[in-house]
Amino acid sequence: MKLFDVYPLYNTTPVKGEDLYIYDDQGIKYLDLYGGHAVISIGHSHPHYVKMISDQVQALGFYSNAVQNPLQQELADKLGAISGCDDYNLFLCNSGAEANENALKLASFVTGKSRVIAFENGFHGRTSAAVAATDNKSINAPLNNQHDVSFLPLNQLHSLDYELVKGDVCAVIIEPIQGVGGLDEPTTEFLQGAQELCKKHGVLFILDEVQSGYGRSGKFFAFQHHNIKPDIISMAKGMGNGFPIGGILVHPSIEAKYGMLGTTFGGNHLACAAGIAVLDVIKEQNLMHHAQEISAYFTAQVKSIPQVKQIKGRGLMAGLEFDFEVGELRKKLIYEKRIFTGGSSNKKLLRILPPLTIQKEHIDVFIGALKEALEEI
Length: 377
Fold this sequence. Notes:
The protein has 377 residues and is of the alpha/beta class. The chain has two domains: 14-46 and 286-376, Aspartate Aminotransferase, domain 1, CATH 3.90.1150.10; 47-284, Aspartate Aminotransferase, domain 2 (3-Layer(aba) Sandwich), CATH 3.40.640. Helix content is 35%, strand content 17%. The strands form three sheets. Strands 4-10-9-8-7-5-6 form a seven-stranded mixed sheet, sandwiched between helices. A hairpin with a 2-residue loop joins β1 and β2.
């Protein structure tokens, strides 16, 4: 049997990971500054993470949500404490797309409406409603196009007000830092204004923190830089450090009813063990503050590279924008300098999404390699 060929692949086969480094099947060592799309939050094979998962799978790897699972409440308690969102309610699922799918479904349930407002260059996943709210026609099939979604420019409150007045919108969904779209951000003024407009018109305000959450921006959630309180917060990537887990935080004003959301695998014992381990390490190693410190150092070092035209993003969700497309630069970095980086829909942007355990010496290695690569291309 062949694999369904939907991924263009780099010619490298990782077989082992250790903190910031991965090793391929030829024994070659790579510096991982991409974390598999911002998934690796506490470093590859962190000892506490490995022990938590190993111990749990030996005891009980899975049972469904038809029974009590105290690990879910432990995860909820630790998540509420570290995020400052302890008044929200947690629903667990398996991925970022699934988190956004449930967020949009819940908004439609609550409001009785169906139209969604999303934003240009936004990305929210590849499932039915999540991909319909993603600004990329090439990954939307006719089935997805049946959803009623309107795309607006970032930071135009008058455009948002014009749409919400029509009275048919269930949700406004937005990334506080765009991931795939290229690290553009809504302003504080826009986010606060959007929240007020949503309240005024009875629309649920959804913050997609799938990539920007879990300490990556220097705060637990990136929306916390803007003094807002969303109705629903979606999260996933850094949540399990590679183990499939996602979730939504639901404002206490939204009432749960049996059957309105559900999942077979979401919140299983093994997933919860992974999620608890991640929260333990973020707290014990003070990784949110660390992300701020490393971000400041990274920014200072990058300023020594004249080819970088703009530094985008926050914390350890960073983008370096050039005046040329970076495809060849990324290949040179991975094949010659042995460094993983990322791209985006902005072909001139190099995305940097390292594990939050990154140190200054890793930044120094990258800066030196980037300077060499820029001289060579």
